[in-house]
Amino acid sequence: MISLFLSISMLNLLCLSIAAGLGYGVMFRGASVSPYHQLAGVISAIVCCGVHCIVFTYFIATAKWIQHAIDVKHLDQQLASPTRSFKAQAFPAALAAMMFVFLTAIAGVLRLSYGISPAWHQCLALLAIAVNIGAAAVEYRAVVRNGRVIDGILTSVNPVAGPAN
Description:
The chain is built from 4 helices and no strands. Helix 1 (2-29) packs antiparallel against helix 4 and helix 2 packs antiparallel against helix 3. The model has no long low-confidence stretch (mean pLDDT 91). The protein is mostly helical. The radius of gyration is 21 Å and the shape is elongated. 86% of the residues lie in helices and 0% in strands. 29% of the residues are buried.
């Protein structure tokens, strides 16, 4: 999961950065770049949602798997308790990241439709990128720690056999 998470997080940040870069293109080159910026903004919002939903799904699925392993193999119930804190760390960070991307998109629509100052959209865009970087760091730590718990359960369920003679 770690390599998948890193790949999709980098894709998310790349999409957000491209949308921001095209936004600066709109500022300096005018309306000819605007449709590309709008398309990149929509795509980056969808990618951001997808990335953080994958993280949600990972924690939900692994929590169910861990509980199943504990029930079937009669393991200590305390093995599941750390995963709740990992999920509790990752979910708010992911929700904040998605919220700032959506607020940025709303500010962009308000800019186009009602002529609000572009500074609002620009500040929210930079904040959305920063929040997504922070969320990726929090999610990464939670995914790594959750993976260690899963590895520990797998080791206790399937102990490594000694060398064959």
